[in-house]
């Protein structure tokens, strides 16, 4: 059975739980696959470690948490250090190149670009960094089509910010492709 | 027309399940990890004329739903571990006064404030023994978002059918994870209404056993006047200390559940036909167990799973039968061995019961269960 495991990790307040939810929604509502999203976080609302996990499969999903990660997003150095060890051989690691200076070594592919900076300076708002990261994860993992992921983004964000999020998603998608080429 | 689907959290699904079941009154006090139930119902209940009350604490919330239920409402409160402790006196009141209500409790490590954001399964004994005295107990432990929705509806049905409080107890993983859910159409899932009196008000008694073990319950404000108390009572609801009445009434209250175990107890059997090792699991832990059983089978080990859906009343009959069939029982649970004691009681020493007990706020992973399966000789 095809089981694909993603982990979005970083700090509380970076929107990683939302990014995970949208990825899972894209798979389970728009792509016709099955998906489970779960999360763990500390008692603080912002700043503590945060992670969101998504399992995507063609069939029913039993264990809802990551066992061996296929794709990891790390938005802090701490997250990169903590979670890169259980990345599968041949898996993919996406990091924010401004925030993760010590790139973890391993038998996986690492893709790096300045995610938060892209959101801030190229899309125009830092708050959509999670959607930039999501666009990149969609491009790197191939679990859902670009179209279905975009539908999931647009159905999950406030109406006043549709264009902003669309731009953030596209920018992340393109940058990841360019960075991994 | 295709059915409505959504991508929801267990807690959100619970709220929508309650609405499907006809819940029109909620009182609660928000607490992690169950707050989303309050969030959804505070938005949804007023749309259909229902009432949402945020009370000053968990005790008051429990009191409010009992009062509203006596006035004819279908009622829900939601809470978590420490809140469940606070509610217990009034849970007992609901049991002895026979007031239908649903308590949705997301289990949380304890005692006391424990670990608010971590998963736990350490409230299962509190569902039965949290309030003092002999009393019926029904507790459901769902394992998915869809099942949380479905089981909340079933909880309402059981509470109305047996006129007693019913608890639904997911763990934090089930309560907070998101999955696709398919909403049933109106009328597709049975919703059991409360049995109304068939006699005029002047002949009505709230505990009239000539109507069976579950007497009809009139709604306050509908012209029927009756007395409600937490003391042992007679058929008309007034207190008594007459030995034969107290004995008979206590026995009847417990019998409501004990005589209907097959109607209440639900479970899932997975790969049990030729199983030599059975993993008994409930809630999110059953999802790790299923994963482990699948891997064990791939390795040629005859493992299976018995998944408890109804924790109380406990599936004694099924576990006793399993204990005569298998070489060993494995029980993974996020507490220090609560279900394990029940399994040992049912197994009566016939087979070993091997526990995996975790209370560190981390889920039990499939590898741990697989290792334990392999210990069974």
Topology summary:
The complex is a heterodimer of chains A (181) and B (377).
Chain A: E1 3-11, H1 16-30, E2 34-41, E3 49-57, E4 69-74, H2 77-83, E5 87-96, E6 109-113, H3 115-123, H4 129-141, H5 146-154, H6 162-180
Parallel strand pairs in A: 1-4, 4-5, 5-6
Antiparallel strand pairs in A: 1-3, 2-3
Chain B: E1 5-9, H1 10-20, E2 25-28, H2 35-44, E3 51-54, H3 58-70, E4 75-80, H4 81-97, E5 101-106, H5 124-129, E6 139-140, H6 145-162, E7 165-168, H7 172-176, E8 178-182, H8 243-258, H9 261-264, E9 267-270, E10 277-281, H10 285-298, E11 303-308, E12 310-312, H11 316-323, E13 328-333, H12 338-347, E14 353-357, H13 366-375
Parallel strand pairs in B: 2-3, 2-4, 4-5, 5-7, 6-7, 10-11, 10-13, 13-14
Antiparallel strand pairs in B: 1-8, 6-12, 9-11
Please provide a brief summary of the model.
The complex is a heterodimer of chains A (181) and B (377). Chain A is of the alpha/beta class and 181 residues long.
Describe the structure.
The complex is a heterodimer of chains A (181) and B (377). By secondary structure, chain A is of the alpha/beta class. Chain A has a single domain (3-180), classed as 3-Layer(aba) Sandwich (Pyruvate-ferredoxin Oxidoreductase, domain 3). Helix content of chain A is 40%, strand content 26%. Chain A has six helices and six strands, in the order βαβββαββαααα. Chain A has helices spanning 16-30, 77-83, 115-123, 129-141, 146-154, 162-180, and strands at residues 3-11, 34-41, 49-57, 69-74, 87-96, 109-113. A six-stranded mixed sheet of chain A has the order 2-3-1-4-5-6, with helices on both faces. The model of chain A has no long low-confidence stretch (mean pLDDT 94). Chain B folds into two domains: 1-264, Thiamin diphosphate (ThDP)-binding fold, Pyr/PP domains (Rossmann fold, 3-Layer(aba) Sandwich), CATH 3.40.50.970; 266-375, Rossmann fold. Chain B is 38% helix and 17% strand. In chain B, helix 1 (10-20) crosses helix 2 (35-44) and helix 11 crosses helix 12 (338-347). Chain B starts with a strand and ends with a helix. The chains are: A alpha/beta (181), B alpha/beta (377). The A-B interface holds A 21, 24-25, 28-29, 34-43, 61-65, 67 and B 5-7, 116-118, 173, 176-180, 284, 287-288, 290-291, 294, 363, 365-367.
């Amino acid at each position: 059975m095809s089981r694909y495991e993603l982990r979005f990790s970083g700090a509380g307040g970076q929107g990683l739980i939302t990014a995970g939810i949208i990825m899972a929604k894209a798979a389970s509502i728009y792509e016709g696959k099955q998906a489970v999203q779960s999360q763990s976080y500390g008692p603080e609302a912002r700043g503590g470690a945060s992670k969101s996990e998504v399992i995507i499969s063609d069939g029913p999903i039993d264990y809802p948490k990551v066992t061996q990660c296929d794709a990891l997003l790390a938005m802090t150095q701490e997250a990169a250090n903590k979670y890169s060890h259980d990345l599968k051989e041949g898996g993919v690691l996406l990091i924010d190149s401004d925030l993760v200076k010590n790139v973890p070594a391993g038998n996986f592919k690492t893709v790096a670009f300045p995610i938060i900076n892209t959101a801030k300076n190229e899309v125009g708002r830092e708050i959509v960094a999670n959607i930039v990261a999501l666009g990149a994860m969609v491009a790197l993992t191939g679990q859902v089509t670009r179209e279905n992921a975009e539908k999931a983004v647009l159905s999950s964000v406030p109406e006043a910010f549709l264009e902003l999020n669309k731009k953030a998603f596209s920018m992340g998608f393109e940058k990841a492709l360019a960075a991994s080429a | 027309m295709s059915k409505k689907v959504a991508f929801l959290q267990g807690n959100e699904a619970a709220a929508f399940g309650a609405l499907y079941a006809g819940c029109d009154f909620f009182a609660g006090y928000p607490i992690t990890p169950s707050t989303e139930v309050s969030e959804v119902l505070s938005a949804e209940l007023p749309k259909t004329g229902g009432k949402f009350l945020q009370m000053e604490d968990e005790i008051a919330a429990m009191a409010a739903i009992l009062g509203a239920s006596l006035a004819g409402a279908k009622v829900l409160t939601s809470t978590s571990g420490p809140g469940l402790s606070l509610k217990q006196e009034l849970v007992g009141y609901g049991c002895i006064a026979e007031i239908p209500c649903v308590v949705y409790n997301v289990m949380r490590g304890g005692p006391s404030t424990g670990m608010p954001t971590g998963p736990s399964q350490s409230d299962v004994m509190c569902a039965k023994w949290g309030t003092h005295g002999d009393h019926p107990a029904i507790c459901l432990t769902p394992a998915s978002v869809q099942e949380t929705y479905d089981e909340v509806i079933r909880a309402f049905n059981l509470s109305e059918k047996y006129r007693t409080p019913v608890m639904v107890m997911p763990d934090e993983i089930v309560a907070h994870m998101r999955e696709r859910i398919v909403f049933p159409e109106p009328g597709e899932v049975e919703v059991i209404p409360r049995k109304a009196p068939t006699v005029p008000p002047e002949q009505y008694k709230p505990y009239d056993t000539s109507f069976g073990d579950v007497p009809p319950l009139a709604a306050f404000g509908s012209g029927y006047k009756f007395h409600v108390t937490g003391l042992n009572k007679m058929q008309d609801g007034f207190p008594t200390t007459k030995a034969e009445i107290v004995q008979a009434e206590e026995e009847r209250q417990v019998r409501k559940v004990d005589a209907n175990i097959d109607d209440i107890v639900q479970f899932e059997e997975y790969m049990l036909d030729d199983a030599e090792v059975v993993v008994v699991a409930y809630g999110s832990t059953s999802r790790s167990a299923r994963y482990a059983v699948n891997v064990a089978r791939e390795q040629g080990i005859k493992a299976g799973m018995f998944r408890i859906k109804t924790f109380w009343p406990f599936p004694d009959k099924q576990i006793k039968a399993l204990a005569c069939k298998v070489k060993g029982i494995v029980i993974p649970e996020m507490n220090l061995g609560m279900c394990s004691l029940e399994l040992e009681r049912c197994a009566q020493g016939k087979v070993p019961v091997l526990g995996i007990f975790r209370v560190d706020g981390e889920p039990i992973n499939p590898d741990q269960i697989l290792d334990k399966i392999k210990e069974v000789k």
